[in-house]
Design goal:
The termini are far apart. The chain has helices at 2-17, 22-37, 57-67, 95-109, 122-130, 143-147, 159-167, 173-177, 181-188, 190-200, 229-250, 282-294, 335-347; strands at residues 46-50, 74-77, 81-85, 115-119, 216-226, 252-263, 269-279, 302-309, 313-314, 354-357, 367-370, 395-402, 404-406, 409-411, 417-427, 435-443, 449-455, 462-467. The protein has 13 helices and 18 strands. Strand 13 (404-406) and strand 14 form a beta hairpin. Helix 9 packs across helix 10 (190-200).
Length: 469
């Protein structure tokens, strides 16, 4: 009697699960069947979306951005395809049918009509969608049998390969899968054989994931048209606090911001802010924009503001120093960047410059003027680490100045006293400005340290090139 009792005990939970209205039981049973079909270890389910009327790559990226609401693994297949791995999303959309309907609506938001196919491998899903077949292949064992009737053109192989296969009577996927592997590889290439392996799941395909660039863009409509900079700054502070929250959540900062002032009839007035270091602090950005807005001439009242940041950069907070700047070797830290940004806001973009070191031994060619350098990790090297480094003057003359010579020694407001051994610098043959010089540190009659050199080529003239501080 024990077996019947065990059978009744096992049957009781199933009977309770089937209680309820018939349509609800049918939907629940269909969902369970789909999930059971995907219980293979590390099984995947891909959706291939074919969009024959797609207008360009930009529209494909917009659709990929919308598709991320259904799966984090979205892959582009230009020029007219999209792939999503949706195994973990079936329970959120009531199975394959609900997910298909949601994806179709997403395509409709962009005015697109696509063919959707589900399969365990990405290439199989894409091939079925290209063939116009809205298939739902949930088991890998069924893959080859369902794909066999599809035309060979869905793989988009090179035209000569497809023509040779057609002349041999091979026009479908099933026919090409029945060919001997070694002979197929010799005649049609290893790349095509590898694609067949990815199609059937013999080799797992690793696809790149679409990552849209993160940008910040917010708009604020004003309650009334503003004519004064104080009103604009008050509205802008609201957007700057939203920007700060946005950046803090991503541990990011911005190096450039644009505030667009929208008028009723006049063209948009753009106010741009260029920073010296990545920043995310709303108070700091508001102080800089206050200076920028004070210099803007409004053609007419402003009815709305837009704040945009196109590029986000990683923001690593700098460690503070125990000592204040100037005390016991305390560094400036971020004060230098803040000073650069304030000067740039007050004086304009072209008023602030930086110096860039170049790899050249010639003193006049070892530096260049450019934008202020971006912050970088600075490693302080002890003086003992570079014992052979020679001191160079901070002030270099634009052009070396010829010196008078008496008794073979240079003169500048009197005789010069040479100190130390000479430093020989030769180079420049590669750009036509060849130099060959012997540099000396010299002292004049007042004790001023100068940097002079003697030409190694005739007539061996002496020149002043720099002055030490």
């Amino acid at each position: 009697m024990s077996p019947p009792l065990r059978q009744r005990a096992d049957a009781a939970p199933e009977g309770r699960a089937l209680q309820g209205p018939a349509p609800r039981r049918a939907v629940a049973a269909a969902q369970r069947a789909q999930l059971l079909a995907l219980e293979e270890p590390q099984a995947e389910l891909w959706v291939g979306v074919h969009l024959p009327q797609l207008s360009g790559a930009r529209q494909l990226r917009r659709l990929a951005h919308l598709a991320q609401r259904f799966s984090p693994r979205v892959s582009l297949e230009p020029p007219d395809g999209l792939l999503l791995e949706v195994r973990g999303s079936l329970g959120l959309f009531a199975g394959v049918g609900g997910l298909r309907a949601a994806l179709t609506r997403a395509c409709g938001e962009l005015g697109l009509q696509g063919t959707l196919a589900f399969a365990p491998t990405p290439l199989a899903a894409l091939a079925a969608a290209r063939a116009g077949r809205e298939l739902e292949i949930l088991k890998r064992a069924e893959l080859v049998g369902v794909l066999a009737p599809l035309p060979l053109t869905v793989l988009r192989w090179p035209a000569p390969v497809v023509e040779r296969l057609k002349r041999a009577g091979v026009r479908t996927l099933g026919a090409v899968l029945r060919l001997p592997r070694a002979g197929f590889a010799r005649r049609f290439g290893v790349a095509q054989l590898a694609m067949l392996d990815r199609l059937t799941g013999r080799v797992r395909e690793v696809r790149g994931v679409f990552r849209p660039p993160e940008r910040f863009s917010r708009r604020k409509e004003l309650d009334c048209e503003a004519q004064h900079h104080a009103q604009l700054l008050g509205a802008l502070r609201v957007l700057l606090h939203e920007l700060e929250d946005f950046l803090r959540a991503r541990q990011a900062g911005v190096m450039a911001l644009e505030c667009r002032l929208l008028h009723r009839q006049a063209a948009v007035t753009a106010c741009r802010l260029q920073l010296a270091a990545p920043a995310a602090d709303a108070r700091h950005l508001g102080a800089l924009f206050a200076v920028e807005l004070s210099r803007v001439v409004l053609p007419e009242p402003v009815r709305a503001l837009e704040l945009r940041a196109a590029t986000l950069l990683a923001l690593t907070p700098a460690g503070g120093s125990l000592w204040q700047p100037g005390e016991h070797g305390g560094g400036l830290g971020s004060e230098a960047h803040a000073l650069i940004e304030r000067l740039r806001a007050r004086l304009g973009e072209g008023a602030i410059h930086g110096l860039t070191l170049l790899e050249d031994h010639r003193p006049e060619s070892s530096w260049a003027i450019g934008p202020p350098p971006a912050p970088a990790a600075r490693v302080a090297a002890p003086a003992a680490a570079v014992p052979c480094a020679r001191r160079r003057p901070l002030w270099l003359l634009g052009q070396p100045q010829a010196l008078a010579v008496r008794g073979g020694l240079p003169r500048w407001h009197g005789p010069l006293q040479l100190a130390g051994e000479p430093e020989r610098i030769e180079g420049g043959w590669w750009d036509g400005r060849d130099v060959a010089r012997d540099y000396y540190t010299a002292l004049d009659a007042h004790g001023v340290r100068l940097w002079v050199f003697r030409e190694r080529r005739p007539p061996h003239g002496w020149f002043l090139h720099g002055i030490f501080g």
